[in-house]
Amino acid sequence: MTHLEVGWGGWRAVLHVLACGGLLAACEMGSEARPLSSSLPPPAPPPAAVVVSPPRQVPVPAPRVAPRRVVPEPQERTLANQALARKLGAPGTRVDDPCVAPLAAGCARTALAPFFESLDAMSAGTASSPTVIEAFGNSLIAGDRIVDILREDLGAGFGTAGRGVLLVDRMAPYGGRGRTGFSKGGWQPRTLGELRAPPHPFGITGVYHVATAAKARSRFKLEGESHGTLWWLDVPNAGALTVLSGDTVLARTGPSGSGLSKSTRFALPAGATTVDVVAEGKGAVVQGVVLQQARPGIVLDMLGVPSADASLYARLEDGALRSQLLEREPRLLVFFLGGNESKRLEWKRTDLKTLRADLGVLLRRARVAAPSSACLVVGPMDAVRDAKDQGKAFTQRPFLEAVVSAEREVTLAEGCAFFNLYEAMGGKGSLERFHRSGYMHDDLVHPRGRGLDVLGHLVTDALLRAWAETPPSSGSVASLIPVQPPPPVTAAETPP
């Protein structure tokens, strides 16, 4: 058969192929072709099929759940201090906690964030190490009772982890031994509060003790601490220091006469009840002894020195300041300052410009040495003129409020928090109320007894309220202070 001899069935197959445009895949095989019409254009080929892949499942991170901050249940003593504060007309006040990491719509981080985050970790049970607080200051805290309230109240809520930094002996022939070892003598104390600068530099305690005889000894009762550190000064021609527990030698220093502040660590035997520090020869210098546990909890180092102010804290040797704060890893630096400054302003021994400059230098030095720590300045309490001036009894010290304002301004500018103790205890006239209730010494400068407890409570209460009311932050520690070289030591002050 020739190509002209194709039957109808064969032409139908040909027409079906033509109608599909040769794209057999786009036609249903075996379907009937439509009849051709001269009035209709040939059908357009269908669009190519588009294969759509199913959407990829991207995991959505779970929203961050902020820790719930709840002030610990107050102890019976705390409730008693609250009641006494109300009776004395001491209303308390809030902490000024400036923003150090501002956002367009608010604040990502405040000055106290490092300390608050440590409280969060202890509250949540995720902390792995102690939360250390370094409390610098003057005679207001040197007796330890004000900061003891802070230590005990925070410890009751978050646990304790040892006594921290202690001294081998008292700073004076009088006073308690809650923060010192027990000694029968043989140690001479020197402090940064002395009118003339002592011959050796100070570490962060602001105190050192010189052995005045060979075999000078100080004994510390242990409270379950697992390890310790001896801070000592490597002075020329001084003997070694030995750390013992019973008859067991735990550590021995190797002096070379370098003049540097040094640190010797030691482990405490399980079940030990005491540890002794012994000077093998005359002239050995001890800056402090650290006794601490490894568990989470509050450790508050009392570093107050009578007569201290921001200017005298320039006597802290920079190497010791950096190395000892690095070792302590504090989460909060607290400075109780302003009382001596207001007196020295009245005596014309300083001026507000110097006060501002010295406080700024102190805060910058401390923040450079402890960049992961929050910082807080507690201003002076109410103060009156000299108690010996009978004609001006209970007359407010003239520069007091100027000191409070200057300290607050400098503190906030340096990225630290500020607590106005003068306002918290009731402002002008509050010291007279404390005195008439029997809570001031006759010098009308130093509170006593439960008056000290009330002042400590005002600080603790404000810190805990600030923690509970501040939204948790995120990110690394914000720092507004550039690293600067250590400041020169200021000249000693002459007494009036």
Automatic annotation (TrEMBL):
Bias kind Pro residues: ranges: 483-496
Region (Disordered): 472-496
Protein name: SGNH hydrolase-type esterase domain-containing protein
